[in-house]
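pasting for ref
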Amino acid sequence: MQSLTSSQYHFILRQARNVMNGHTNSADEDVLAAVVLMAIERSEGLTGAVSDELKRTIRLMDSVRNKEDYDEFRERLLLYVRPMVEVTDKDIKKLFPKVKNLRMPKFAEAVRKELTYLGWNDPGTNRKYFVFEEGDGLTGLYGQFRPSGKKGVCSICNGIDETGLFLTETRHAGGETYTKRGNYICTDSMACNRRLDDRERFDQFIKSVIR
């Protein structure tokens, strides 16, 4: 079975929501046909060479007219998603060897299918942690996190939600000077993942805080 990444899954779901909203907001059959065609073409184009099986599933969005239809389509599409690998306590110790007593949330496989990255807040240390797949392994990153208490645009998912300033500190050669880099991102990493429909945006964010 051809597999989808989490971000591809969320991208296709966004197209399905466009179809659902089209049926809610318009009764013009020509307009609706154009919305459906565009949604299907975008979804099939995202995944490169689409298998016939996945193509048939994607084209089921033609019948998405309400929330019930959308939920059924989402469950069908979820079968094709490759979950993020399970991150173990051993992995965490390896990724963050200098951090003691670090507690990481556990996610079932169904939830990991929605994750491009694993992110969580540690209010005790005012830090946010990230774990994500890169190449054939896992990469970890943490930085200071200061919740803003108000809504803003997230640098990762590009959505609008409660955000905070994520700040990293890079030591220069010799260890005497540091550079701080930061961006505003979602406080709720799970909600952020569910809006993230382009992995490249996440990669760009990571580059922006570690370069």
